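Q: What residues go here?
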């Protein structure tokens, strides 16, 4: 009987270890948006803080932003579309920030972000520099096919704030509710400042 108890304890320990590795020990999928401040910009981590087993920006997938100007006009609204592509995605998520690139205000919010439909939301970041983060919602993590999109409105800074850095981290997930087998894509885009106000 003691031998059986020892074997049972060993099997339970192995099962617990496997469950933890597969995300079964209380870890939940981030369907309602990723942890805040995980874009990879200004020293932030990315989705790879949890999803580490596949190479970053692996071949076979891509991340881009449509509608991004090369140079913004102060106070103008731009419709941006974050596009994540990878065959075999079961779920997907993203997080995006728009921040002042250089100078004393580097890392602070640049302009205003707004979600355009129920697939995305905008949440505040932690102090000391309040930053907005656009991210997927529960509805926005669903995919159909090899490509998914999230639409945002970005109102550029009212006064020329210099260049703006846009950081995005995105997860092409396999939908097994674990951090394993998911592909993370990150990107940084610089939008030049200046231009004439509208």
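A:
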């Amino acid at each position: 009987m003691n031998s059986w108890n020892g074997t049972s304890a060993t099997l339970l320990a192995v099962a617990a270890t496997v469950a933890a590795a597969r995300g079964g020990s209380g870890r939940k999928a981030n369907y309602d948006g990723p942890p805040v401040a995980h874009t990879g910009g200004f020293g932030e981590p990315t989705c790879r803080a949890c999803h580490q087993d596949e190479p970053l920006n692996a071949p076979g997938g891509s991340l881009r932003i449509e509608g991004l100007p090369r140079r913004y006009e102060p106070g103008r609204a731009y419709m941006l579309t974050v596009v994540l592509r990878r065959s075999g995605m079961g779920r997907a998520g993203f997080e995006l920030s728009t921040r002042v690139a250089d100078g004393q205000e580097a890392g602070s919010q640049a302009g205003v972000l707004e979600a355009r439909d129920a697939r995305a939301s905008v949440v505040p970041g932690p102090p000391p520099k309040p930053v907005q983060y656009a991210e997927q919602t529960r509805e926005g993590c669903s995919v159909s096919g090899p490509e998914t999109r999230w639409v945002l409105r970005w109102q550029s800074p009212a006064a020329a704030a210099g260049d703006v850095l846009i950081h995005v981290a995105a997860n092409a997930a396999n939908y097994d509710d674990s951090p394993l087998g998911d592909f993370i894509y990150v990107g940084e885009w610089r939008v030049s400042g200046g231009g004439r106000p509208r």
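A: Context that may help when evaluating the design: Residues 2-21 form the longest helix (20 residues). The chain has two domains: 1-29, 31-191.
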